[in-house]
Amino acid sequence: MAEPARVALLVTCLVDLFRPTIGFAAVKLLEAAGCSVEVPLAQTCCGQPAYNSGDRADAKAVALQVIKAFAGYDFVVVPSGSCAGMVRVHYPELFADDPGNLAAAVELAARTHELVSFLVDIRGMTSVAARWPHAATYHDACSGLRELSVKRQPRDLLATVDGLRLCELPGAETCCGFGGTFCVKYPEISDKMVSDKAAEIAATGADAVLAGDLGCLLNIAGKLSRLGHAVEVRHVAEVLAGMTDAVPAIGMPAARS
Amino acid sequence: MEPTSHAFIDNARAGLANPTLQRALALARTGFPLRRSQAVARLPEFEALREAGKAIKDHTIAHLDFYLEMYERNVTASGGTVHWARSAEEARAIVLDICRSVDAKTVTKGKSMIAEEVALNDHLEKHGITPVETDLGEYIIQLRHEPPSHIIAPAIHLMKEQVADSFRAAHTELDPVRPLIEARAMCDEARTILRPQFLAADVGITGGNFLIAETGSSIIVTNEGNGDLTQTLPRVHIVLASIEKIVPTLEDAATLLRLLARSATGQEFSSYTTMSTGPRRPGDLDGPEQYHVVLLDNGRSALLGTEFQDMLRCLKCAACLNHCPVYVAVGGHAYGWVYPGPMGAVLTPALIGLHEAGDLPNASTFCGRCESVCPVKIPLPKMLRHWRERQFAEKLTPRTARTGLSAWSFVVRRPGLYHFVTGVVGRVLAWAGRGRGRFRSLPLATGWTGVRDMPAPEGRTFHSLWAERQRRGSK
Amino acid sequence: MSVARDHILGGIRRALHRDRLPDDVARALDERVTAHARNLVPARAAALDHAGRVELFVAMAEEVQTTVARVASPDSVPDEIVRYLAAENLPAELVMAPDPDIAAIPWDRRPLLRTRAGRAEAGDAVSLTPCLAAVAETGTLMLVSGAATPTTLNFLPDTHIVVVREDQVVAGYEDGWDLVRARGTGMLPRTVNFITGPSRTGDIEQRIELGAHGPRRLHVVLIGGDLPPDHA
Question: Is the predicted ipTM greater than 0.90, yes or no?
Answer without folding.
Answer: yes
